[in-house]
Design goal:
- The complex is a heterodimer of chains A (about 180) and B (about 350).
- Chain A is α/β, with parallel strands linked by helices and about 180 residues long.
- In chain A, about 35% of the residues lie in helices and about 20% in strands.
- Chain A has a single domain, classed as Pyruvate-ferredoxin Oxidoreductase, domain 3.
- In chain A, helix 1 packs parallel to helix 4, helix 1 crosses helix 5 and helix 5 runs antiparallel to helix 6.
- Chain B is of the alpha/beta class.
- In chain B, the strands form three sheets. In chain B, strands 3-2-4-5-7-6-12 form a seven-stranded mixed beta sheet, with helices on both faces. Chain B has a five-stranded mixed beta sheet with strand order 9-11-10-13-14, with helices on both faces.
- The chains are: A alpha/beta (about 180), B alpha/beta (about 350).
Amino acid sequence: METRILIAGFGGQGILFLGKYLAAIGMALDRQVSWLPSYGPEMRGGTAQCGVILADTAIGSPLVEEPDILAAMNNPSFAAFEGAVKPGGSLYYDPAFVPEDARTRSDIAYLPVPAAQASEDESLKGLANMIMAGALLKSLPEVTADVIEAAMKKTVPERKKEMFDANMRAVALGYAF
Amino acid sequence: MSEKVLIKGNEAVAEAAIASGCRHFFGYPITPQSELAAYLARRMPKVGGVYLQAESEVAAINMVYGASAAGVRCMTSSSSPGISLKSEGLSYLAGCDLPAVVVNVQRGGPGLGGIQPSQADYFQATRGGGHGDYHIIVLAPGGVQEMFSYTCKAFDLADQYRMTVMVLTDGILGQMMEATSMTVNSEQATANSEKPWAVGGVRTGRARNIVNSLYLKPSELEETNLARYEKYKLVEDAEQAHDSYLLDDAEIVVAAYGASARIAKNAVDEARNRGVKAGLLRPVTLWPFPKKAFLEASKHARAFVSVEMSMGQMIEDIELAIRCSRPVSLCSRVGGMVPDPAKILQAIISASQEATA
């Protein structure tokens, strides 16, 4: 089984970090993983995207052209990649950036995650990405509390205790949506 | 076995250099290679090594030339336009029979081109790059794990044959992260072989060594060329390497290296689902080209498809290897565009239909 995930948004929203955490989740689940960022001028602002694949067998192409799961963290990403989502797939998006009437498909699941708003309400400034990560984890099988924590330890070392706790709280918040 | 870590291809190459006992790195930043140099800027001082950002690519390769002549393991890395600048140095290294490891994380060209992935430096790499009759060994990793292991191998091959070994990769493999095991056996880390030819001070009373590529007597220069080509014959015989996937009964053989091979694998799977007997032959050494594997595959292949991020470069080596005994078609995207599995699948199906007709 192979799960292909595309994460897209503004540079600075922590798109690549979100992807890295999902790849760490895959490793904690003992699956094959790949993580491929966009590395163009968008690294210095503008749009950023990142493809993550979790698989049971060796991964061929690391490019995510038809994602099973899309996380759109802004409206341009929603518009650009909504059409690419595999029929039957899931589109997670932040309703703060995407208007109600933006949806155009009937063969995918739309899952609004008010990550930006929640990050403000819960004093998790800058962690909307990890709230989104928490929400996404519900689409992945076998993700347990242990896996969530083990992957976080790989992504944010525990010696950065403060950031570790905040990230864990953000993921838990997203998971609860 | 040690735990796997999630690491970028560029960084895996850098860590492999450390693991292989390389303590001298000379570089100059360029996308999409820069993480490699940045990683070594942090790591080298911690292991007592030298990290030096040169004033240009030309300076960096000549620092490699000097360090190698002094007998130490050394490396430089760049991306396409920077490798062109280093090409003079590659020729001098060959003319002096010096070992070196050079990494090219290819981007679109020609000229400054772009910064997205490409494989358009195939000819440049496999034909040596600079002037004169010479070869370099060219290794093409297929993933981040191989970025690590083939960089380690590059140092060994360089010392063994006193040649430049190029790790030829691309922006996709350089930038992507995969779970990678970065252990080497202790032998590898101390594999710096004896280098009785090295310069660096005559403290022991031995006769002085000279490292030089200038021979004004044509007969002497011819002799060095002939001797070098005797060595190349040994390399061609002993070092051809490839990987294969569903190749044993393949009627349509897809040939691709590096990131293209990763993508082609998906297309091969899909072709099999549709009843086309496709298989993948992935050259791991681009020079020496794995001719034996291609000749062997031509016994059951009806056609070959060369998948490249270049305008048809490797395809020439395939045609030479199989002596044009089967049709070879090209499936390519260039300029930083990447072939998608659907396009490759179409090329496989076309090749299959044409071979039947």
